[in-house]
C-alpha cells in the first residue's frame, strides 16, 4: 500500500478520538474521604486515579468523571496529553506517574489508551489499567492499524483537510481536526448540542505521526485491565473495541453511548474506574 493510500486509511476509520473541551490543564487533586477528620493513613489511602485524554480533546473532557471520583474520596490527576507522537506522549505520562506517591489506576480514552499502554509498561506503581472507548494496541500495532481492522468508523468523512506543519522534532506531518459542523454528530451525538458545539470549537489536533507510530510492548499483558465499550461510537466501532478488550482479557462493560462517553456518561465511566481501584491493595 502506498503512503498516500495508507494516509487515506487514517481518514476513513481513523478512530482516535477523545472529547474536546475548553482548556488544556493538569488537574491534580488529593481528596480524603468525606467522613475522615484527617488525611487517611497509608493503609487506607485510596489509589490515585490518573486520567489520559485522547485526540481532539483536553483533560477537561474528564470533568464529570473527576467530580464523581472526588466525591468518593479518590485523588485524581488529569494529564495534559501532548498528542504529538506515541512514544513522546507516553514518556510525558510516565514522568507524571513518577511524581505520584503510592499506587495508581491509569485510565485512557481513545488514543489515550495507546498512550497508557506504553506509559505503564514496567511501572510498579500502576496497579490497574482502564480503557474507555479506547485503543488497546499490541506491540507493533498503531492506532491506524487498529482503526483499519474493522468497518464502521465514519471519522474519515468528518475530518477537515489536514494542514501540513513542522512538528516540534523538526519532521513534517499533519495536524488533524474534525470539521466543526460535523463534530456533534460524529463525536458527541448524545451530548447536549450546545456543549458539543463548544467541544468542536476547542478541540485539539492530533498529528498523523502519532496515529501511525507503532506501540512498544504494552502494559496490559502484565497488568489487570478493564474496558468500557461505547456501543454507539462512530469513531472506534463497537466490534473493534470488543476485539481489543477480549484480546487483553479485560473486565468489560458495554454502555450505550457515543465516543464522547466521558462527557455523556461520566457516572458509568467513574464506576468502572472505581471497580478497578477496589482491587488495589
Automatic annotation (TrEMBL):
<feature type="signal peptide">
    <location>
        <begin position="1"/>
        <end position="25"/>
    </location>
</feature>
<dbReference type="InterPro" id="IPR029058">
    <property type="entry name" value="AB_hydrolase_fold"/>
</dbReference>
<dbReference type="InterPro" id="IPR052897">
    <property type="entry name" value="Sec-Metab_Biosynth_Hydrolase"/>
</dbReference>
<dbReference type="InterPro" id="IPR000073">
    <property type="entry name" value="AB_hydrolase_1"/>
</dbReference>
<keyword id="KW-0378">Hydrolase</keyword>
<dbReference type="Pfam" id="PF12697">
    <property type="entry name" value="Abhydrolase_6"/>
</dbReference>
<feature type="domain" description="AB hydrolase-1">
    <location>
        <begin position="49"/>
        <end position="271"/>
    </location>
</feature>
<protein>
    <submittedName>
        <fullName>Alpha/beta hydrolase</fullName>
    </submittedName>
</protein>
<keyword id="KW-0732">Signal</keyword>
<dbReference type="GO" id="GO:0016787">
    <property type="term" value="F:hydrolase activity"/>
</dbReference>
Amino acid at each position: 500500500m502506498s503512503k498516500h493510500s495508507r494516509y487515506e486509511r487514517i481518514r476513513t476509520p481513523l478512530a482516535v478520538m477523545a472529547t474536546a473541551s475548553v482548556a488544556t490543564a493538569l488537574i491534580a487533586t488529593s481528596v480524603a474521604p468525606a467522613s475522615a477528620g484527617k488525611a487517611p493513613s497509608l493503609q487506607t489511602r485510596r489509589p490515585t486515579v490518573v486520567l489520559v485524554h485522547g485526540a481532539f480533546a483536553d483533560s477537561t473532557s474528564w470533568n464529570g468523571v473527576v467530580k464523581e471520583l472526588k466525591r468518593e474520596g479518590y485523588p485524581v490527576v488529569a494529564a495534559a496529553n501532548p498528542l504529538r507522537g506515541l512514544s513522546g506522549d507516553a514518556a510525558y505520562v510516565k514522568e507524571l506517574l513518577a511524581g505520584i506517591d503510592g499506587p495508581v489506576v491509569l485510565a485512557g480514552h481513545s488514543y489515550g489508551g495507546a498512550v497508557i499502554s506504553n506509559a505503564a509498561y514496567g511501572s510498579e506503581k500502576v496497579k490497574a489499567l482502564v480503557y474507555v472507548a479506547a485503543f488497546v494496541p499490541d506491540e507493533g500495532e498503531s492506532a491506524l492499524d487498529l482503526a483499519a481492522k474493522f468497518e464502521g468508523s465514519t471519522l474519515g468523512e468528518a475530518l477537515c483537510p489536514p494542514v501540513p506543519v513542522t512538528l516540534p522534532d523538526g519532521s513534517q506531518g499533519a495536524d488533524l481536526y474534525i470539521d466543526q459542523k460535523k463534530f456533534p454528530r460524529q463525536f458527541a451525538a448524545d451530548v447536549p448540542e450546545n456543549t458539543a458545539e463548544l467541544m468542536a470549537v476547542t478541540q485539539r489536533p492530533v498529528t498523523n505521526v502519532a496515529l501511525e507510530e507503532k506501540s512498544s510492548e504494552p502494559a496490559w499483558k502484565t497488568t489487570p485491565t478493564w474496558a468500557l465499550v461505547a456501543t454507539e461510537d462512530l469513531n472506534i466501532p463497537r466490534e473493534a473495541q470488543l476485539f481489543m478488550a477480549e484480546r487483553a482479557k479485560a473486565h468489560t462493560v458495554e454502555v450505550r453511548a457515543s465516543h464522547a462517553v466521558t462527557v455523556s456518561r461520566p457516572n458509568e465511566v467513574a464506576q468502572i474506574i472505581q471497580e478497578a481501584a477496589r482491587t488495589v491493595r
